[in-house]
Amino acid sequence: MRRNQFQSDPWPCSMHSGMKNHADAICRRFTLIETLVVLAIATIITGGALAYMLRSPSSLVLSNAAAALEQLMLTAQSQASLRGVARSLKLDAEQNIFSIDDLNDEGMPKEHTELDHTADDMPPTQIDMLRLDSDIVLEFPDLQERSMQYIFFPDGSASGPELTLSLKNHRRRIRVSRLTGTIHNENITDED
Questions:
Q1: Are 71 and 146 in contact (CB under 8 A)?
Q2: Running DSSP on this structure, what letter comes out for residue 15?
Q3: Residue 91, Cβ neighbours under 10 Å: how many?
Q4: pLDDT over 70 for what percent of the chain?
Q5: How are strands ordered across the β-sheet holding 97-102?
Q6: Strand, coil or helix: 126
Q7: Is the per-residue pLDDT at 41 higher than 90?
Q8: Would you state the torsion angle of the CA atoms of residues 101, 104, 107, 109, taken in this order, to the nearest 10 degrees?
Q9: What is the pLDDT, as a whole number, of residue 168?
Q10: By CB neighbour count within 10 A (0-12 exposed, 13-18 middle, 19+ buried), where does 163 fall?
């Protein structure tokens, strides 16, 4: 009687799935070309992910700066509502610093002295100021001059120009609704 070939075969893949003859039992292995194709696909995917990750930090810096500016605007808006006095958010274009201040009766930023401050009317703090990264470019499409300010009124309305923040190839737009004081912080794509 002839010995069964499946029992003497050293390859485990030939011992299962009910194969009838030895020709069906030959193990299928990856060829060199198939392995190189898989490695090429993995390299392309890794390269795309790496390019995205290297581009990401500047996008995050810009998003964080826009979010911090939006938060500063919300702070000015809530202070105007709570104090019943219009608040100004103005930009020092030389240093990229935004700061919140009260407005006097003529609509100009109020000058503070040491005697003016009470418990309810404190001088500007770190919460009332924001210094943007010097690499961030500020653009005001609606204004010709670089001096700008946003004004938030106690009734919730506001005024101020559209502002575009740019860093490398990334751009964000901040707009304030005049009627409701709603702040719109949006990403600008190439299609816009």
A1: no
A2: G
A3: 21
A4: 68
A5: 129-131, 97-102, 87-92, 149-152, 158-159
A6: helix
A7: yes
A8: -30
A9: 85
A10: buried
Residue 78's Cβ-side half-sphere holds a number of Cα atoms within 13 Å equal to 8
Answer yes or no: are the C-beta atoms of 91 and 148 closer than 8 Å: yes
Q: How far apart (Å, rounded) are the C-alpha atoms in residues 109 and 182?
A: 22
Indicate the residue type of 96: N
**56 secondary structure, DSSP code:** H
Instruction: Give me 192's structure tokens.
Output: 């816009």
Q: Name the residue ranges covered by the structural domains of the chain.
A: 59-188
Whole-number pLDDT of residue 92: 84
pLDDT tens sequence across 164-190: 999 888 899 999 998 888 999 998 887
Which architecture does CATH list for 59-188?
A: 3-Layer(bab) Sandwich (3.55)
27 or 166, which is more confident? 166
Residues 135/167, Cβ–Cβ less than 8 Å? yes
Q: Which pLDDT score is estimated for 72?
A: 92
0.85 surpassed by pTM: no
Task: Round to whole Å and give the CA distance between 55 and 63.
Answer: 13
Q: How far is CA 59 from CA 11, 111, 135, in A?
A: 54, 37, 12
Structure-token pair, residue 177: 């609704």
Output DSSP code: residue 127.
G
Record the tokens describing residue 41, joined without a space.
């696909």
pLDDT at residue 128 is higher than 70: yes
